[in-house]
Design goal:
The structure holds 2 protein chains of 2 kinds. Chain A is 40% helix and 17% strand. Chain A is of the alpha+beta class. Chain A has a single domain, classed as CBS-domain. Chain A has a two-stranded antiparallel sheet with strand order 1-2. Chain A has a two-stranded antiparallel sheet with strand order 3-4. In chain B, strands 2-1-3-4-5 form a 5-stranded parallel sheet, with helices on both faces. Chain B has a single domain, classed as Rossmann fold. By secondary structure, chain B is of the alpha/beta class. The chains are: A alpha+beta, B alpha/beta. The interface between A and B is medium-sized, with 20 and 24 residues.
């Protein structure tokens, strides 16, 4: 079966496999700490146009926080599950409240086909890239679909 | 003995499928959906004895919102709900809303199966 650009599906998969995490990752990674406040994270996401950050402690990734996590906390505040009427703004939850602690990472040589499957099937939005236990980059969904569609159109 | 029906609602398809296989091997009848709205649609058609719910789902509704809807609905509020999450600080919140149990991902599936069976044994005692 061929698509509009005359790829067979197998050729498309093969092309996606040639693109590696290190080719599409952001190398200048902005990381946050577990005791950073969520308003700071919201501001960082807006200013830097990034939808997720690795959370580091002693150079080790202990979590990932994404825009979805901020939405979850927003719902909890709106329904009064956290931050009751008499709470002060200092009690706004911190990163360690909202972050995911089950961190799934990829290696620099993980291919785009596998990254797409990981993001889709494990419902991941921000994927840290780790080499020898060291964080070397980060991949967001935006990086994935940008590279997928330029591969499909053969303009990468 | 009548087989128990379990509904898994989890945005992580890989985890959900693994859990479904293990529960089926343990002789439960299992349905798995990935979105909160799909769970509500399924519940309209079919009774379940237990819901295993993740906080992070696919689609618009998150697991906390679904838990709130379940516990506010007279028809569903008696169904025990186990909430699983990769967020470690949610136990108090989900138990306040009415969850039976909270478990942090990743977890040992064999231990989890024991806990599921214990929940059914407890509910048998209540009858």
């Amino acid at each position: 079966m061929k698509n509009q650009n005359n790829f067979t599906m197998q050729e498309l998969t093969d092309n996606l496999k040639m693109i590696k995490a290190e080719d599409i990752m952001t190398r200048e990674v902005i990381t946050v700490r577990k005791d950073d406040t969520l308003d700071l994270i919201a501001k960082l996401m807006i200013d830097k146009r990034i939808s997720g950050f690795p959370v580091l402690e002693d150079d080790e990734i202990i979590g990932v926080i994404t825009a979805n996590d901020l939405f979850l906390v927003m719902d909890l505040i709106k329904t009064g599950e956290i931050l009751k009427d008499n709470s002060d703004s200092n009690s706004l939850p911190k990163v360690d409240f909202a972050m995911s602690t089950e961190v799934i990472t990829v290696k620099p040589n993980t291919d785009l086909n596998e990254i797409i499957a990981l993001m889709k099937y494990r419902n991941i939005h921000t994927l840290p890239v780790v080499n020898n236990n060291k964080l070397v980059g980060v991949i967001g969904r935006r990086d994935v679909y940008r590279n997928f569609y330029c591969t499909v159109k053969n303009i990468c | 003995m009548v087989k128990k029906h379990i509904l898994i609602v989890d945005g992580d398809i890989t985890h959900s499928e693994r859990l479904k296989r293990n529960l089926e091997t343990a002789d439960f009848i299992v349905e798995a959906v990935y979105k909160g709205n799909d769970a509500l649609m399924l519940l309209k058609k079919q009774w379940v004895d237990l819901i295993i719910l993740s906080i992070t789902l696919q689609g618009i509704m998150n697991g906390i919102q679904l838990l709130q809807e379940l516990k506010e609905n007279e028809e569903y509020q008696q169904i025990p709900v186990i909430v699983q999450s990769n967020k470690v600080n949610m136990e108090e919140i989900v138990k306040n809303i009415g969850a039976t149990m909270f478990i942090t991902k990743p977890y040992n599936i064999a231990d989890f199966l024991k806990q599921v069976k214990e929940i059914f044994q407890e509910s048998q005692k209540d009858i």
